[in-house]
Design brief:
single chain; about 150 residues; alpha+beta; 3-stranded antiparallel beta sheet; two-stranded antiparallel ribbon; 7 strands; about 20% strand
């Protein structure tokens, strides 16, 4: 079997069982497939390269870093809405929607950090927890599958 055919088979075989019921996922790469995150990351890389290459210069970000589906970017305030609209036009499937969050009180959460802009222009990083964070973790010695005991 050709590698491309095998990859297509793996990505389009989207049946899964949940609480004893069999379902067929109707869109996207197969949930739980080890190859799905890799393919999603490759597509996001393509999408962001296309978006940045075609963005008008007056709204082009001066800084752009992505981790999975979280993006930290620096853009002029007047360009935030226009940049978001541009990003949403690049994906012709309409299945990926970019949103934005503006800084508040000279700070911006990104992943598990809070980026704080100091008056002298420097940046300070703090640990950040969302309001929904529970501080609950699985006990490593608990009887759960090893894949849920991430350290």
């Amino acid at each position: 079997m050709d590698v491309i055919e095998l990859l297509e088979f793996v990505l389009t075989t989207r049946y899964f069982r949940f609480r004893g019921q069999l379902y067929c996922q109707t869109f996207g790469a197969a949930m739980g497939s080890p190859v799905s995150p890799l393919v999603a990351d490759i597509y996001m890389e393509y999408l962001e390269q296309t978006a940045i290459a075609t963005v008008p210069l007056d709204i082009k970000p001066t800084f752009w870093k992505r981790y999975v589906d979280d993006i930290l970017e620096v853009v002029k305030r007047h360009g935030v809405v226009d940049l978001t609209e541009h990003l949403n036009e690049v994906d012709n499937t309409g299945s990926i929607k970019f949103t934005y969050e503006s800084e508040r009180n000279d700070s911006m959460p990104f992943l598990d950090t809070l980026i704080v802009k100091k008056p002298d222009g420097h940046v300070k990083l703090l640990i950040y927890r969302k309001q929904t964070h529970t501080d609950q973790y699985l006990n490593f010695d608990s009887h759960t599958h090893c894949s849920t005991n991430s350290v």
